[in-house]
Amino acid sequence: MKGSSAISDHFLVRAKINIRLSTEWRKKQKHKGKIDRDALKTSTAKVYQEKLISKIQNMHERPNINEIWKEIEQTIKTTVEDVLGYIPEKTRKMWFNEECKRALHEKDRARMKVLHDPNEDNKRLLALKQREVKKVIRSSKRIWEKERIQNIENNRNSHSKIFFRKANEVRHGYKPRTNVMRKSEPF
Question: How many of the other CB atoms lie within 10 Å of CB of 100?
Fold first, then answer.
């Protein structure tokens, strides 16, 4: 794969492997966000309570307790959606921005020039672009980390719960989520 970018004089090799795994994949449900529970501290709580009472009083009696429970659950969920709503999810500001993308694109173009015409000028240009990419990425990441630390410091006195949660995120770093396949029967 000569088109793959790596800071090396080696080329990557790609192979196709077919693996058949017998697992049941569940479709991800679209997450709407967290319910706005702070709205219950305002006058909205009274409106929520009145709507919920009126909907529960209008429910039909059923002989099966499971059906009654499902209807109550659905009533509460729809009332919460209608009255309280959801808190919009915060967009995370990551350090990899348009400037980093532009620098990587220029480095890739310089690398392709070296692959097509490996003369000294093209090799020097590639080395220059590689150093530039490292510099841009490092500076972008440093700026992002400083903003993140400043945000944590701002929450130190006023919002201690947020402060400790974010401080632990910085201290422990990124932890990828692992998916484990389980099989009820032995091989």
Answer: 17
Per the listing, tokens 């808190």 go with 87
Coil, strand or helix: which one is 35?
strand
- Residue 95's pLDDT is 87
Q: Convert the pLDDT of each residue in 79-90 to its tens digit.
A: 888 888 888 777
d(CA 79, CA 53): 10
Distance CA 53, CA 67 (A): 19
How confident is the model at residue 83, as a pLDDT?
86
CB 95 within 8 A of CB 141: yes
Separation CA 128–CA 96 (nearest Å)? 20
With beta carbons less than 8 A apart as the criterion, state whether 78 and 56 touch. Answer: no
> Which residue numbers in the chain have pLDDT < 50?
none
Ordered DSSP codes for 115-151: HH---HHHHHHHHHHHHHHHHHHHHHHHHHHHHHHHH
DSSP 8-state secondary structure symbol assigned to residue 43: T
Cβ burial, residue 183 (10 Å; 0-12/13-18/19+): exposed
